[in-house]
Design goal:
The structure holds 2 protein chains of 2 kinds. By secondary structure, chain A is α/β, with parallel strands linked by helices. Chain A has 16 helices and 10 strands. In chain B, α9 (about 245-255) packs across α14 (about 355-365). Classes of the chains: A alpha/beta, B alpha/beta.
Chain lengths: ~400, ~400
């Protein structure tokens, strides 16, 4: 029997306000925009909760009850959970009830949705531990499958996850690394012994996440019958559908019919005797790894390059992230909780994404998802905040 | 059959005082490449080389009109201002209105002697000539608005006479071309022109009009070598261009960075006032006034700049911003400018928000990565904003009318 494995990503960054040089030394708050701008984190969390998290989670709760065989999994960034607890705690309650059904698996990631693995392995581990504690406190579970920020993956991350005790890890099912192979099987990371690698079926995932409402798409409108048929016809053991949770209601608005689609999909899947639902852990327990997968260079789920260039590809992004991690010792040695927390909030990958010039510079402004007017404005605000942080970290510093 | 366009202009490089002449040069050349024949009419005989267009000078013998000497500068200089010309708060030079009126009369005569399909007039100075030509021949008229009286006056002391000429030209034209949506809004709201009669055609830049050579930068190079960064304002020193906001931002920047020079390049009625402002802000040591620069010197200052700032209060387009981009300078432009509608690789700020402007200036000066990224992408972007593109749109409009 072939399984359908859903994983939804829930994440909200702490966007940096328009922090000016003149604020340096006077204002240690970087994330407290309270204007009508899209930098107001409270406003955005409230909006996304209303449009997406609340209706989608309420619907999924009902669906899980209606279909006891149904399974889904989630990965929450720590800072998303933090903000939800603060601004829309009813969402946290809904997520708790989801987990209580026993039909939902929670995955592990970094608390700050960071790229720390590639810049500071020690910091990376601290953030994974911090995330695990939060998940345990809120949901009483222990993540057994890992997924890294932006689905970034490399051989050494697979080996790290195995050593850290995870059963499995997720990555993008990108053709160049697959070659003739299908993403619909379980694989083994190169150099690892038992951990499983689950690969995203990006074609079927993106049919929902990106193409669902696209009228220029030849398959529009996407019906559950059609999608159910594609799932049935897909070769392999498991179809891994990985996507942002905001797909439901925020990226695809309610009036596109996305919720109606979601509501009918489980029924359609379960109608097919060859299909069933599984969580990532269940997939790993059910199928043997078919082959070893060699991913020497970083793979992500972003754009057509599937690498980290959307985050650290241009000179501004590199300058920003290198400056950030260069401060690690100064920050940690201060033993100042607020300072450390601010430094970590500045590690969130979104900050670097806002500085991306890949599409913006050449005119595809619609591909530039950012609360800033331009990558240059994003960079200035970030670097000003970072300079203030450095000032705080080195204030009255005793020379060693 | 090639369309023959009778085009009335006022200035043409190298005898220009601003963007109007640059735009006429770029547009006529690109239009002629697309197959139009341009008869470009100027008020006075000048040594201009533009082989792609047939130049007609209103004061030339073969058109046998009264010869006259035109006061070619549409704007008065700071020197003539201090001599008391342009009295009554007027920014216009001496007998400019007389010139404009004489030019209008020649318009009709030239029109009756030449063979053409359509009439085209650039800005109010030549609207009169355009209207006269239309009256005489009944041929369709396009007026191209590069700036309005509201931009030039900064909204204060709008000259009624100029406004009336502008309004008449726009009303009588069969189509009004605006250099930006920003300008189109003014034309619709302030001049009562129906929106569907106004078409936006953005200016461009190409090798015809772009400064291209990097020359020896003697004195500025020396200063730059000793570690100074150079921030450039280039434009007329008038209310419209916001030089005072530039200095206000400069004063804020200098509190944080000492090794910065602010260069004000241009001339205009606010020049003396700006020198005094620099003094009272206590930044006179860091502000340089170069006067109006032409050709080589202008290129020199552009390529020396680490950053170009255009803080215009009301800027129909702002070709200078494209010139700076083309030469690889990062740019900060006011949101009250037409060029901000087309250019992406720039920092944009409200002209009055001098704090934010200063923050941006500091951000750019302090970060080589930001300078590099903006310059690289900006240069490529400017290379794609061509006169050819503008001419293609104008060509389409012409063909709808003839």
């Amino acid at each position: 029997m072939k399984s359908v494995c859903f994983y939804f990503q829930v994440h909200q960054p702490y966007r940096v306000k328009r922090y000016r040089i003149f604020d340096m030394g006077n204002d240690p708050e970087y994330f407290n925009d309270r204007s009508d701008a899209d930098l107001n984190n409270k406003k955005i969390v409230e909006k996304v909760s209303k449009k997406s998290y609340i209706p989608a989670t309420s619907l999924l709760l009902e669906l899980l009850k209606r279909h006891p065989q149904m399974r889904v999994s989630y990965s929450f960034s720590g800072i998303a959970l933090e903000q939800l607890e603060r601004y829309t705690p009813e969402v946290i309650e809904l997520f708790k009830r989801l987990v209580e059904t026993g039909q939902v698996e929670i995955l592990g990631e970094t608390y700050y949705h960071s790229l720390a693995f590639f810049y500071s392995p020690a910091e990376f581990e601290r953030q994974v531990t911090q995330h695990r504690s939060l998940v345990r406190r809120l949901f009483g579970v222990w993540p057994r499958v890992f997924r890294n920020t932006e689905l970034s993956y490399r051989n050494d991350l697979g080996i790290w996850a195995e050593q850290a005790g995870y059963r499995g890890i997720l990555a993008e099912g990108w053709d160049p690394i697959l070659g003739w192979r299908s993403p619909n099987y379980v694989y083994r990371p190169k150099g690892a012994e038992k951990i499983a690698l689950l690969l995203k079926n990006y074609k079927l995932s993106d049919d929902i996440a990106f193409r669902f409402s696209s009228r220029t798409w030849s398959e529009w409108p996407l019906t559950t019958e059609k999608f159910g048929q594609w799932l049935g016809e897909a070769p392999g053991d498991t179809v891994n559908l990985f996507m942002d949770y905001e797909t439901f209601g925020e990226h695809q608005w309610e009036d596109t019919g996305i919720f109606a689609f979601l509501e009918k999909l489980p029924e359609e899947i379960l109608k097919n005797p060859g299909l069933t639902f599984k969580t990532p852990s269940e997939v790993i327990a059910s199928y043997d790894a078919k082959d070893e997968m060699d991913v020497p260079h970083t793979l992500t789920w972003a754009d057509t390059d599937r690498d980290l260039t959307a985050w650290v590809g241009n000179p501004m992004q590199k300058a920003a992230i290198e400056n950030l991690y260069a401060m690690e010792d100064d920050i940690l040695l201060r033993n100042d909780t607020k300072l450390i927390e601010d430094w970590r909030k500045l590690q969130t990958s979104d900050h670097f994404y806002y500085m991306c010039t890949k599409w913006f510079a050449d005119g595809d402004v619609h591909a530039y998802f950012s609360p800033y007017e331009s990558p240059y404005d994003a960079y200035i605000a970030y670097m000003n905040a970072l300079s203030d942080l450095r000032l705080r970290a080195t204030k009255n510093k005793v020379p060693v | 059959m090639r369309t023959r366009v009778l085009m009335f202009g006022w200035e043409f490089p190298p005898f220009n005082s601003g963007g109007l002449g640059v735009a006429c040069l770029g547009l006529t050349k690109a239009l002629s490449v697309l197959g139009s024949e341009i008869l470009f009419v100027m008020p006075k005989r000048l040594d201009i080389r533009a082989p792609w267009t047939q130049l007609i000078f209103a004061d030339e013998a073969d058109i046998t009109v009264h010869t006259y000497n035109s006061a070619l500068t549409p704007y008065i200089t700071s020197k003539s201002y201090s001599r008391g010309e342009g009295e009554g708060g007027s920014i216009y030079a001496g007998d400019l209105f007389g010139e404009v009126e004489r030019y209008a009369r020649f318009g009709a005569r030239i029109a009756s002697k030449e063979r053409f399909d359509i009439i085209y007039a650039h800005d109010w100075l030549s609207f009169g000539a355009g209207m006269a030509a239309k009256r005489a021949t009944g041929k369709p008229l396009i007026v191209h608005v590069h700036a309005t009286e509201f931009d030039r006056s900064g909204g204060l002391n709008v000259n009624q006479h100029v406004y009336d000429i502008e309004r008449a030209g726009m009303q009588r034209a069969d189509c009004v071309i605006a250099v930006s949506e920003f300008t189109k809004r003014i034309i619709v709201e302030r001049y009562g022109v129906p929106a569907d009669k106004v078409k936006v055609v953005y200016n461009g830049i190409d090798e015809t009009t772009a400064p291209t050579h990097e020359y020896e930068l003697s004195r500025l190079r020396a200063l730059k070598r000793s570690g100074y960064k150079l921030v450039l304002f280039l434009g007329r020193i008038t209310l419209q261009k916001g030089p005072d906001y530039f200095l206000q931002a400069a004063a804020r920047v200098l509190k944080y960075e000492k090794n910065v020079l602010f260069v004000v390049s241009g001339s205009g009625d606010m020049e003396a006032q700006m020198m005094q402002l620099a003094g009272s802000l206590g930044i006179a040591h860091a502000v340089f006034f170069t006067g109006f620069l032409h050709g080589k010197e202008r290129d020199e200052i552009y390529s020396a700049a680490d950053l170009f700032v255009m803080p215009s209060v009301s800027e129909p387009f702002g070709i200078a911003a494209l010139e700076a981009m083309r030469l690889g300078a990062p740019i900060i432009i006011s949101k009250q400018s037409g060029v901000a509608e087309v250019v992406r690789n720039a920092l944009k700020v409200d002209f009055w928000d001098v704090e934010k402007m200063a923050d941006m200036i500091l951000g750019v000066l302090r970060s080589p990565a930001l300078r590099y990224s903006m310059a690289e992408h900006g240069k490529r972007e400017a290379e794609n904003l061509t006169w050819e593109e503008a001419a293609r749109k104008v060509d389409g409009i012409i063909h709808q009318l003839v």
